[in-house]
Specification:
63% helix; mainly alpha; elongated; 117 residues; Rossmann fold
Length: 117
């Protein structure tokens, strides 16, 4: 279980999982942004796991939409659909991370202005 921020993939528990994934494994993730929040890295990791290793991922938050086994069974059309859905949600996750950073910076700025830092 990985409780660290999904800001990047340099997480100890994620790297331990990545080293253990084998063909045919099934990985459950609460939400796509728990996998990661960097658009390019999410796409890369998803494809590495599902296409290179040939393991599967289920995103519990959107299980009907994100179950890589369904896309695999659809052949080339499944790859296209998976790429489109994944791209859209990975973009949203990255944008949320940017909003979090912006809010943190604004909060720190207010604290500095008030002399609390």
């Amino acid at each position: 279980m990985d409780k660290a921020s999904g800001a990047n993939f340099d997480r100890i528990q994620y790297q331990a999982l990545r080293d253990r994934i084998r063909e045919g494994d099934l990985i459950y993730i609460d939400a796509l942004d728990r996998l990661g929040r960097n658009y390019d890295e999410v796409i890369s990791e998803w494809k590495y796991i599902t296409r290179t290793i040939k393991a599967d991922i289920i995103i519990l938050e959107n299980e009907t939409l994100f179950d890589s086994r369904k896309f695999r069974d659809m052949g080339d059309m499944g790859k296209l659909m998976e790429d489109q859905f994944l791209s859209s949600l990975a973009y949203v996750a990255e944008q949320e991370r940017k909003k979090i950073r912006q809010r943190q910076a604004e909060g720190l700025h207010r604290l500095k202005f008030k002399g609390n830092i």
